[in-house]
Design brief:
The complex is a heterodimer.
Chain A lengths: L3 E6 L6 H12 L4 E8 L2 H9 L12 E7 L5 H19 L16 H7 L4 E4 L3 H13 L3 E4 L6 H13 L4 E2 L5 E4 L2 E4 L9 E6 L1 H13 L4 E6 L12 H11 L6 E6 L4 H14 L3 E5 L10 H12 L8 E2 L9 E2 L38 E6 L2 H15 L3 E2 L15 H10 L3 E4 L17 H12 L3 E9 L8 H18 L5 E7 L8 H10 L2 E4 L2 H16 L1
Parallel strand pairs in A: 4-5, 5-6, 9-10, 9-11, 11-12, 15-17, 15-18, 16-17, 18-19, 19-20
Antiparallel strand pairs in A: 1-3, 2-3, 7-8, 13-14, 13-20
Chain B lengths: L2 H8 L3 H12 L4 E5 L2 H9 L3 E4 L10 H9 L3 H14 L3 E7 H4 L6 E4 L11 H13 L6 H10 L9 E4 L5 E2 L11 E6 L6 E5 L15 H27 L5 E2 H9 L10 H16 L5 H12 L6 H14 L9 E7 L2 E6 L7 E4 L4 E4 L12 E2 L3 H4 L21 H12 L2 E10 L5 E7 L1 H7 L5 E6 L7 E7 L4 H12 L3
Parallel strand pairs in B: 1-2, 4-5, 6-8
Antiparallel strand pairs in B: 3-7, 3-9, 7-8, 10-11, 10-14, 11-12, 13-18, 15-16, 17-18
Helix pairs in contact in B: 1-5, 4-17, 5-13, 7-8, 7-9, 9-11, 9-12, 10-11, 11-12, 16-17
Classes of the chains: A alpha/beta, B alpha+beta.
Chain lengths: 550, 494
């Protein structure tokens, strides 16, 4: 039988839970085989007897300290263990928690966050499948929503917008990339000076292009309320646009509204036009469509805004490709067509090398091709609409017309395959199907950089047209990451003995964190022709192709 | 959401919308962001006060179900209705009766804790308790015989043995929760509706039937409880109920105990004392033998958990009021049978959603360790379902020593439970939180969205039948109960 220590302290009450914890501490002392520090309640007496302790008569108010020492200890070791155990017990019984801060865990849902502290707006960028729940929380709490998330179902969008209309709240989105409210830029937003114009935009990059153009023209912008790209479709019926118009009608500083949208349902446009009139709101429409059907491009819309406000329509800035010297904005009234690359027509086509047999021979039957590689869906739409007037139907993953060739863009590799055999093609790399599981190309340009490299390897491609978008939320230096890839693409084509031009539509303002002019100069220095106007950039690219075909 | 905000949620407020638009267009001073940090950072760079949501995907890939249930037009009103019924329920002690009479039980019938289970799947402590109940009822002469008959499913005379959940019979039982016809039960009633619920009498700690012990001392104690304790309590309770003071108000005592360091699940000391204080005068005036009265008082007084068996049926009474509201995602029961953890939800009727019961984290008696513990068992999680117990741990900071935590853990646990509950109880209040109401009414949707599982304080039974209690600690339900529940709720929506 091993040595025991049983001690009774009369009337020393401690909570049973505390004592269980103390017992555990004491049992961990070296030389102690088992320990129980407990009030002498009938239950504890049973437990103590079950552990083999011999106990005197006790009352429930008595504190029992029962220790059993390990078998092979000599007397000195037992004494050492006894005093260590009792010291550990005293320490544990007199332990005091530091009264630290009660740190409240961060809220895990939008509803909980708003319960703790209300806010007029919730910015949602969760995966699309969860965005509806977070947006619903916001509306229930009386907050408006900017819904950046894409891959949100049409049913969800309609349900959210109906609920928002019932509560006179805004749902900007889904897939809404850009908004500016009261001077605060949300998502992808350019830094603009305040002024009398407010945008209502069913298109993120369309709104950004207008912000950039108006800023260049010296026209200030008050708000930019996003709608989400489908808002003016027949299905959604302009639910968010209606709320936005009603909201702006109560805003004293808004003198003119520009309504920007990708191709829209005509009946919805008519209804909204009537609503604006009944609200006494001046509206300039910038709804994209086939320009041969009379829809203005975004640049033309910006010019009409200038005209309405009595502001001189400026010459939209461009930057010519410069191999060495620093670029500077040109101020010609003519649309400058980039000079053909040096060596074009004059250097004989080198014979294909032996290991090069898969690349089609330059100068074959194929027409020189235009590749539009866009991060902005609306910029892509606008460019396609303009290009099609000159080049005829073009292939796209987001064709403007159902009769146009549809590129399979179910994912990056499908797209690569589709482009290998396509004619003139315009790709929206920011489309929902391309952003599943990855960031938008305006944040992560890697997908587009690969597409530029791929186009440079395709001997049929004569001109690459791409957009670079600046502002809050966008990549911190898009010009810096695109410039070397553009340079390499041009160099590669030159080495292969063919001409390749790169035309960039640069959407940005002087106030943007990345800096408009510095970005433009970096791109021009890499060999790109840079335009602030997306429409002008497109016309220049088409002119290069047409010149080539002639 | 409180009842008031739930009511507001049910109807739109266009004036609020206009206020929102004004705040928005004036330049939002504060914005909540959920999702990509990049956008929050961009707002911080513009000097906006940003509150970032610590978002995560819902449990079990239930995005579609979460949205369907949230968007359900019935939801706000259904939850407001269900929780307001729960909060409005009173609880008074009206009677103590034999189970045979109160629950219409006949020999061979046994009720148990948790969702329904067969003998084959029953854990050690539930089997031990059933064997002890067979011995107590005189249906077997030895534990071996009891085990054999239970396994065969019939009594010696061929009468079938039936096992069913206490919850299916307006009853609850702690730990194994076994009720047999010869046991006596408390009857708690809601004065407004007359509805009532039942619970067995608490036997004390250590080697007791509810922890799966079935030795002679266990059976002898149960016999004394039926012969002396039950009848004397019955007379005292009836006498008090018939007096001008009226029946003992269990809801009121429970509210007081929360202000005296009890949480109503694993600490019931103040509640027990307040109950005895009410009963002693009635017992003394019964004219019963003084030694019987003394034994009864000594028994109740010597068992700090005596009052648990009154808290539990009071909680069930309240939660039963919240049952069967179509569209409501309120949890109306959480219960364990030692094998399965099950929950029931207002909008899905009597369906149980189950997952494997977990082994609690905590402290062990004597030489027992984690390997000796049975998985979570008992109907006592009805207390947490009603907002006390682990949910009100802040009221009983001493409890946290179970996991070697600090008093701050008790506070933060209760704070966290507000994130998954629908209301703050107007009567059950927590002094240290400025008398904030207990977090009451678990919302399945909130659990699934936040991933915060309900916190339960519990006792631990030995896994071998006959062992008794081995410790106490903290435990959570398995997540799949809530995942299955939200799927079933979503399926009720057209």
């Amino acid at each position: 039988m091993s040595t025991q220590h049983v001690e009774v302290r009369r009337g020393h009450y401690h909570d049973s839970v505390t004592l269980l914890s103390v017992s555990r501490t004491v049992a961990a002392v070296d030389g102690i085989e088992a320990a129980q520090v407990a009030m002498a309640t009938p239950l504890n007496l049973d437990v103590l007897e079950g552990m083999g302790f011999h106990l005197p008569a006790l009352a429930p108010d008595d504190l029992v300290i029962a220790l059993r020492f390990e078998d092979d200890l000599d007397d000195g070791d037992v004494e050492t263990a006894r005093s260590a155990a009792l010291a550990a017990m005293e320490a544990a019984l007199t332990r005091r928690d530091e009264p630290g801060e009660t740190q409240q865990d961060p809220a895990r849902t939008t509803g909980l966050a708003l319960q703790r502290k209300p806010a007029p707006l919730v910015l949602i960028s969760t995966p699309g499948a969860s965005a509806g729940a977070e947006a619903w929380d916001a509306l229930q709490a009386g907050s408006s929503v900017m819904l950046f998330s894409d891959n949100v179902s049409l049913d969800t969008e309609i349900a959210l917008k109906q609920e928002a209309a019932r509560r006179c709240l805004l749902v900007m989105g889904p897939d809404c990339g850009t908004a500016v409210v009261g001077g605060v830029g949300l998502g992808f937003a350019n830094v603009v000076r305040p002024g009398p114009v407010s945008l209502v935009a069913a298109s993120g990059t369309g709104a950004q292009q207008l912000l950039a153009l108006l800023d260049a023209a010296g026209v200030g912008v008050r708000h930019c309320l996003g709608l989400g790209g489908r808002d003016l479709s027949a299905d959604v019926g302009g639910l968010a646009a209606e709320q936005a118009l009603r909201t702006l009608a109560r805003d004293e500083g808004t003198e003119l509204v520009v309504l920007v949208s990708k191709p829209a349902d005509p009946a919805v446009v008519n209804r909204l036009d009537e609503l604006a009139a009944s609200l006494g709101l001046g509206v300039e429409w910038a709804v994209l469509g086939r320009s041969d059907e009379g829809f203005p491009d975004l640049t033309r819309a910006a010019e009409r805004v200038c005209e309405r406000l009595g502001v001189q329509v400026p010459v939209w800035p461009t930057w010519s490709p410069t191999a060495n010297a620093a670029a500077h904005p040109t101020r010609d009234h003519e649309i400058p067509v980039p000079a053909p690359s040096s060596g074009d027509h004059e250097i004989p086509v080198p014979a294909p090398s032996g290991d090069d047999h898969e690349i089609p021979v330059q100068g074959g039957a194929g027409e020189p091709l235009l590749r539009g590689l866009f991060a902005g869906g609306t910029l892509c739409d606008e460019a396609m609409a303009l290009a099609a007037t000159q080049l005829g139907p073009v292939a796209s993953n987001i064709p403007l017309d159902a009769s146009w060739p549809k590129l399979d863009a179910s994912g990056p590799s499908a797209l690569k395959g589709a482009l290998a055999t396509a004619g003139h093609a315009f790709v929206d790399l920011g489309d929902d199907t391309m952003t599943v599981g990855r960031a938008h190309p305006m944040i992560d340009p890697s997908l587009r950089l690969e597409a530029i490299e791929e186009a440079a390897r395709d001997a049929r491609v004569r001109v690459i047209l791409l957009d670079v978008v600046l502002g809050h939320g966008a990549h911190e230096d898009p010009a810096g990451v695109h410039a070397p890839v553009i340079r390499a693409a041009i160099d590669r084509a030159t080495a292969d003995g063919r001409a390749l031009d790169v035309v960039v539509s640069l959407t940005g303002t002087a106030g943007d964190p990345q800096g408009r002019d510095a970005s433009a100069e970096a791109l021009a220095k890499a060999g790109a022709a840079v335009y602030l106007s997306n429409a002008e950039a497109t016309r220049a690219a088409v002119a290069l192709i047409r010149g080539e075909s002639r | 959401m409180t009842q008031q905000t739930a009511d507001q949620a049910a109807q739109a407020d266009p004036a609020q919308g206009e206020q929102n638009a004004q705040a928005l267009l004036a330049g939002p001073q504060s914005i909540v962001t959920v999702g990509v940090d990049l956008f929050a950072d961009a707002l911080v760079a513009q000097s906006v006060d940003v509150q970032r949501v610590d978002w995560r995907p819902p449990l079990g890939g239930t995005e579609a179900e979460v949205q369907k249930v949230l968007f359900d037009a019935r939801r706000a009103e259904a939850n407001a209705t269900a929780i307001s019924r729960v909060l409005a329920t009173g609880a008074v002690l009206v009677d103590v009766r034999p189970a045979s009479e109160a629950l219409e039980m006949s020999p061979g019938m046994f009720f148990h804790a948790g969702p329904p289970i067969t003998w084959e799947r029953a854990s050690g402590p539930l089997r031990g308790a059933l064997m002890g109940a067979m011995l107590f009822e005189g249906l077997a002469d030895s534990p071996e015989e009891a085990e054999k008959l239970l396994a065969a499913g019939q009594l010696r005379d061929g009468t079938p043995i039936t096992l069913d959940s206490c919850h299916h019979h307006r009853a609850v039982g702690p730990m194994a929760g076994v009720i047999s016809p010869g046991m006596w039960v408390f009857e708690i009633a809601d004065p407004a509706t007359g509805r009532s619920t039942f619970c067995s009498l608490n036997e004390g700690l250590g080697k007791v039937l509810r922890y799966g012990a079935y030795g002679p001392e266990v059976v002898d104690r149960l016999k004394w409880m039926s012969a002396v304790l039950g009848p004397l309590l019955q007379q005292a309770v009836q006498r008090r109920a018939g007096s001008s003071a009226g029946p003992i108000d269990i809801r009121s005592i429970t509210a007081q105990m929360l202000q005296m360091g009890d949480e109503g699940h694993n600490r019931n000391r103040a509640g027990t004392m307040m109950l005895i204080r009410e009963l002693i005068p009635e017992l003394l005036e019964l004219g019963a033998p003084a030694n019987d009265v003394a034994d009864v008082v000594r028994f109740c007084n010597g068992n700090d958990h005596f009052y648990l068996n009154l808290v539990m049926p009071a909680c069930k009474l309240a939660l039963d009021a919240g049952r069967d509201v179509p569209g409501s995602s309120l949890v109306v029961a959480m219960a364990r049978n030692g094998t399965d953890f099950g929950i029931q939800v207002s909008g899905t009727g009597d369906q149980w959603f189950t997952g494997p019961a977990q082994i609690p984290d905590g402290l062990f008696l004597g030489d027992y360790g984690r390997e000796d513990a049975n998985p979570d068992i008992g109907d006592s999680a009805i207390t947490e379902t009603a907002g006390i117990g682990g949910f009100s741990m802040a009221a009983a900071p001493a409890i946290v020593a179970f996991v070697g935590g600090t008093a701050q853990l008790a506070l933060s646990t209760t704070h966290r439970m507000y994130d998954i509950t629908l209301a703050e109880h107007p009567i059950m209040q927590i002094p240290i939180l400025g008398f904030r109401g207990a977090p009451t009414g678990i919302d399945v949707v909130s659990v699934v969205r936040t991933g915060i599982l309900p916190q339960i304080n519990t006792g631990m039974a030995g896994k071998v039948a006959g062992t008794g209690q081995v410790g106490a600690g903290l435990v959570n339900p398995p997540a799949e109960c809530f995942v299955d529940a939200i799927k079933a709720l979503a399926a009720t929506i057209a």
